[in-house]
Amino acid sequence: MVGAGLALALCALQLCPAALGGSQPQLLVERSGSRRLSKVGGFAWENCGDRRNPVLLQSLSVAPDPISIPGSLRISAAVSSSKTMASPLKVVLVVEKALGDLWIQLPCIDQLGSCTYDDICTILDNIIPPGTPCPEPLLTYGIPCHCPFKAGSYSLPASDFLLPDVELPAFMTNGNYRVRAAVSNGGEELACVKLAFSLQSQ
User: Fold this and answer.
1) pLDDT tens-place string over residues 146-198
2) Coil vs helix vs strand at 65
């Protein structure tokens, strides 16, 4: 579940390959006015669902702050789950940008922004084909990268990931952002996490 949570957080910024150690087709279609992401800073997180949710993020540390892109990212995380999470796992991302004192929800364009993914299990299978070993460091620490995610506690000690160049659409300008990621199965919310960060692009 740490692998899935990490993937969700980075996929919100189109950094799925960095999280899962593989390459994948670009989710974002380049267009005029696109910007190159250079820094991500001011990172913060919290569980946003009911504390009785089966899956809770216990800890998440991201360094350095700010994160330079391209560059190296060090992450440690711990997740507890009291319930097996099986396909289909629906993920709803709500991405908002601060505009003065207001928060404006961004649209879903080319699978980037406030998007709904009907089954994150299918996405993980597309990135890492079933039968393929999970990438490091997930493999070393026994963290699964495919559904189902069994109940239990998962921990990722401080691990380094290389972040590639990232192109952002013009609507994702410099500023402060927050992301709400909710995971559900059959209408039952299993996990909910809020992330906050600032973007700097060139």
Assistant:
1) 999 999 999 999 999 888 887 777 767 789 999 999 999 999 999 999 999 99
2) coil
- Give Cβ neighbours of residue 35 (< 8 Å, ≥ 6 apart): 167, 168, 169, 170, 172, 173, 201, 202
The structure's pTM equals 0.81
8 Å CB contact between 17 and 128: no
The single residue listed with the structure tokens 């990212």 is 73
The answer to whether residues 163 and 69 touch, using CB atoms and an 8 Å cutoff, is yes
Distance CA 130, CA 3 (A): 15
With beta carbons less than 8 A apart as the criterion, state whether 176 and 196 touch.
Answer: yes
* Partners of residue 2 on adjacent β-strands: none
Which of 70, 93, 73 has its CA nearest to residue 5? Answer: 93
Residue 140 has pLDDT above 50, yes or no: yes
CB 166 within 8 A of CB 13: yes
Q: Which residue has the tokens 């960095």?
A: 18
Q: What are phi and psi of 32, to 5 degrees?
A: -60, 140
